[in-house]
Amino acid sequence: MLVLGAGPVGQTAALLLARWGLPVVMLDRRPARDLTGSKAICQQRDVLDVWAAVGCEAIAAEGLTWTTSRTYYRDRELFSARFGDPGRSPLPPFVNLSQARTEEILDERIAATPLIDTRWGHEVVHLTQDEYGVAVKCADGTVVRGSHAIACTGARGGAVREALGLGFDGESYDDRFLICDIRAELPGWESERRFYFDPEWNPGRQVLMHPCPGSVFRIDWQVPPDFDLEAEEASGMLDRRIRHIVGDQPYELVWRSVYRFHSRLADRMSVGRVLLAGDCAHLVAPFGARGLNSGVPDAENAAWKIAFVRHGWAPEALLATYHDERRAAALENLWVTGATMRFLVPRTPAERRRRQAILERAAVDPEGVTAVDSGRFAEPFRYTASPLTTRDGEFTGRAAAPGVILPDVPVSVPGRPEVSRLRHLTRDGVLVLLAGGCDRAAVTSALADAVSAPVQVTDIGESGALSDALGTRPHEVWVIRPDAHIAAILTNPTSADLTRAVLRALGHPTS
């Protein structure tokens, strides 16, 4: 197996493939890891769950979860929101942790995984594929071969897309954004995320501030297209920008950078044996943290499907569903972030007037704050329209339904002390959960090789707590995919009904 690119999406893909028992060669154009800068900092609970599944629980443990979000317009606070209820999952709802530290933790796990061979200084310049596999050519003339490839080469993955004949249509925003990571003691701010619309010290534009571990704060300023960072530093303006926020407090400038936002999507996310993941496949504005939080689910979706095909548990047709599912997720992210960017960076007089009216109303009318858009936080995509999902209109309005990710709750499994969360049970194959009244023997006879032994909900929960958390009903059988998404919920299924649902979840044609 080949993984092209050793950023966090590529690292995740490599670890997941190795977890399925597949040897991996991971190639990266850089000479070595550059562990600097916050970059992607906010990781959602379900991404933390994926990393926990590959032995990287330290990301959730070290990350910081802020509890209060404050939004300001000019010189006044519009509203604040508190995130006090962590829910039933043992994992936090999200954490802030620098991408550099996240990559370091993933690297430590990769170094302890003999199935992964990481090769730095291997810039991919071309690739070809046939019915037997993929051949990747590097800039130094090296050719590396594998049965399949997951391309995680980032926004600069043009060589891969070009070799596959893929366009990367979309747009780039003119305005730039300045990032500064600073270390400072700001009591009370370490648990708050702050968003400023049109402050007097950055008129007409926005500022976002996030706390990170170790008394580090990440600050993003929207700046003009002609912004010059070197000139800003030389003139002392950068220090004045920071002082407008932190006041007279001493601070250390840890890292700074300037970037632009892009909204782009590859024509296809899979071509034969090559699957595109992360920024190589799609670019979105970061408000709402939908970049890495969509790249990691890309990697998971690709990894389990390749593994099932390689092990002979599923047909080659399963790989084609990667494009169906993850491109739909990318389109949703583009739509959500596009709406946010039209609010944050209005391009027409009508958009500017609309934003001004919304902000001015929100300043005097509490009901008006619902229209203020500073980014809708990332959440798992719902595969309700996927060809792998057995659809049923009966589940309209239920929190858990076919296509939705399985809620994660504490469980206790007799004889398996290492299993403490429901998601632990989903990572070794297709999981079948039986609600009360189901015949375990009848269900077992319908299952394929890739399916784990069926689990009775009442055997792993306490006093009905698990049934309540999931919302199971009597005589239901739940089919759960290896990425924890619900493939089917069947009531009193016949053996044939269950067989069809399992085969559909594995990409087999069904009547």
UniProtKB/TrEMBL annotation:
It comes from the Bacteria. Keywords: FAD, Flavoprotein. Its cofactor is FAD. InterPro entries: FAD-bd (IPR002938), FAD/NAD-bd_sf (IPR036188), RIFMO-like (IPR050641). One of its GO terms (molecular function) is FAD binding. Pfam families: FAD_binding_3, Rng_hyd_C. Residues 2-330 form the FAD-binding domain. NCBIfam families: PRK08132.1 (NF006002). This is FAD-dependent oxidoreductase. It comes from Sinosporangium siamense.
